[in-house]
Give the backbone structure.
Amino acid sequence: MLRKTFEAEIQQMKDEIILLGSMVEQNLLNSVKAMKERNIEESQQVIGRDKAINDKRFALEHQVMIIIATQQPMAHDLRLLASLFEVISELERMGDYAKGIGIINVRMGNQPLLKPLVDIPRMAEKGADMLHRALAAFVNEDITAARLIPAEDDDVDALYDQVYRELMTYIMADPKNIERANWLLWVAHNLERFADRVTNICERTIFIVTGELYEINQMKDG
């Protein structure tokens, strides 16, 4: 009976992780859409929704601590619960990047975009897709997917480099473009960091199954 109760609690936590991830994904995509359309009201809603993400983070962390205290898990179960705690924290930080993009759009006020957004929405879509699949791998303990997804971060990095180079050409053409270029550079930076954190989730999936915790990028580069 105790084991069945534990398994039910774990399944509920996994369901809640997927829900939190969905909230983060949607807020990220909405933040970039609002930036692209210069929709200040939508950006303010993005900023406001971050509180719900934060509240859910703390509620889930509290629940994980209760399970650890009451069930006294060992081995695989303890690794899973420790990883749940870490992934919840990662998702909250990823939510902060979406909030940050919303704040940038609000601070821009009535300034027009320096250029139409093309690669920045691609970065957002790629990052959200990576997160969606990384969380599916996490809850299913799919280490094959967890090992493959981080390589896709290179695509996001390439888009970031492309955004950076293009914005530099605008600045060199006219130094007065620096401020508006910086706004977009910060947006791209947030999206690049968002994708980086997907790798951390994949590392936790591998840890749950194998008991080995290492940085995937270090293994790839080495």
Q: What stands out?
A: The longest helix spans residues 2-37. Residues 2-221 form a domain with the Methane Monooxygenase Hydroxylase; Chain G, domain 1 fold (CATH 1.20.58.220).
